[in-house]
Amino acid sequence: MKRVMRFVAASAVLIVLAAFLLGLLFRLPGDAQAIRVSAVIAFAVQVFAFAVVLVVAGTGTNVFPAWGLGMLLRLASLAVMGFWLVRTLGLRAEPALISLATFFFVTTLVEPLLLKR
After folding, report:
1. Which of 10, 14, 17, 63 is the most buried (most CB within 10 A)?
2. What is the pLDDT of residues 27-86, one digit of tens each?
3. CB neighbour class for 83 (10 Å; exposed up to 12, middle 13-18, buried from 19)
């Protein structure tokens, strides 16, 4: 549980920092909303994927299949965002997809550090 809370904190900090920097890059009307929606989606997906990897790691089985499943979950959420949510929510595609991919990237870099025992 302690590692999940550390991951939640680290992910929140990284996503807020990345959102701020992306906000400097994307300045058209509606871009901030697209970045916020992507941030919420990325945070939820990352925390869920990390928790699944920790559960599998706790059973003593191989962690890599669970980590691969997390990667597929990230890819699927990026596809859902691109093919459905952007149009449904009326978001601009560029900031929504670039920010979602960026949030996934920066938070995935922290995972190995927190998976160590």
Report:
1. 14
2. 999 999 999 999 999 999 999 999 988 888 777 677 788 888 889 999 999 999 999 999
3. exposed
How many whole angstroms separate alpha carbon 12 and alpha carbon 59? 27
Mutual angle of helices 2-25 and 93-108, in 10-degree steps: 140
113 Cβ contact list (under 8 Å, min separation 6): none
pTM over 0.85: yes
DSSP labels, 32-78: HHHHHHHHHHHHHHHHHHHHHHHHHHHTTS-SHHHHHHHHHHHHHHH
